[in-house]
Task: structure prediction
Amino acid sequence: MALKVLIIFGTRPEAIKLVPVIRALQQDESITPVVCVTGQHREMLSQVLELFRVDVDIELNVDVSHLPISQSLAGMLTELEHVVTRVQPDVVLVQGDTTSCIAGALAAFYNQTPLVHIEAGLRTGNLLTPYPEEAHRQMVSRIADVHMVPTVGAMDHLLRENVNPASIHITGNTVVDALRLVRDMLPENADALFVGRLVGQIKIPAARLVQRMVLITLHRRESIGETFSRLCNTIAECARKNPDWTFVYPVHLNPMIKEPAYQLLDGIPNIYLLPPQDYLTFVWLLARCELVVTDSGGVQEEAEALDKPLLIVRDRTDRPESLSNKKTVITGADAAGLTKYLDSFLLEHQCSPEEMPGNSPRESIFGDGYSAQKIVTILKHRYISAKKCVGDKIHTVDNDAELI
Ligand code: UDP
Result:
């Protein structure tokens, strides 16, 4: 009997990082993957699923878009418990640290189904940054049966928390796999295609898209309010001082980000606010730009994999590995740091455009682009053998390493 793996997710970054895993699971005859989405990010999620042609088996009927975190979690968990009871998976798989991730993890736990956590072990050590993600990922680590960690540093965090070493596997981050998949999808005439696509979407002269470009994504919950407004004002001021540079910002759909971003940045001649871009277009922008300014975890990893200069707009990063790249700076989450580093980067690079790297991800600190296959191999080793040993229902919530 095939191993039934229920994959639960709900946001854009989870989808991007899980697509390579879902594909690898689908290609294995000994596994039956069941894809369940929570609806946490409906619009931005479907951009990813359509691009990679991933079919969804189960879509929850909860609208969490305007709910506080506690109610989102409660709504998802109630529905997910029904899903787990109905599907009766051998294993539940979750990724990262979102509300969908913790809801999926708890649903598995309450049904005593083994839980596999992908991108485990990231830590800032401060429960409030990123919020609520740091707490989510720590809680998932307490109940997961297997922890797929991206780096040695992530493994060390889990070891310090007394997680059973036999349950930890260093696989790399599947985001590098996603970049590799996207590279294979890019057409020969990518520049013409994406310039045309963006010119069709917003009022941007084509010439602007081949000019020197800063790519921005900012959306962290802990910056919402005053801090976010100050960050926008910094970007506005910097753009005014540097009219030859183009600032491109695909704005997150969260109204608490979108509204102030448009209020403070729209109309500044060299700033272009875009709706969220499909992953292919976004990766093209990443490859095109000379500097990335972000508070996103995923974009941090992608910028590193593409060897891009990067300003991380956070007080602490949960991906400290990227700081070993000399092109990466952590500015702090407030405007003062961003002003300092953005101004000095643009000043320093005024006369010498960066050599544009190609679209190809190099082998990065975060992975070699083949993490998904490693994850599937580990799953098979652990759970197919366990199924044979103990019969139909796998009982591994105790982290019983002897089954390996
Ligand atoms: N991304 C995208 N389109 C955009 C902006 C970002 O596809 O317009 C991708 C980006 O490449 C990265 C992911 O979305 O893989 C990051 O998502 P987000 O910033 O929402 O979450 P985080 O990584 O901070 O959890």
Q: What stands out?
A: The chain has two domains: 3-178+367-403, 188-348. DSSP finds 15 helices and 13 strands in the chain. Confidence is low (pLDDT under 50) at residues 399-404. The pocket of uridine-5'-diphosphate is lined by residues 12-13, 16, 217, 219, 250, 276-277, 279, 282, 296-299, 302 (CB under 6 Å).
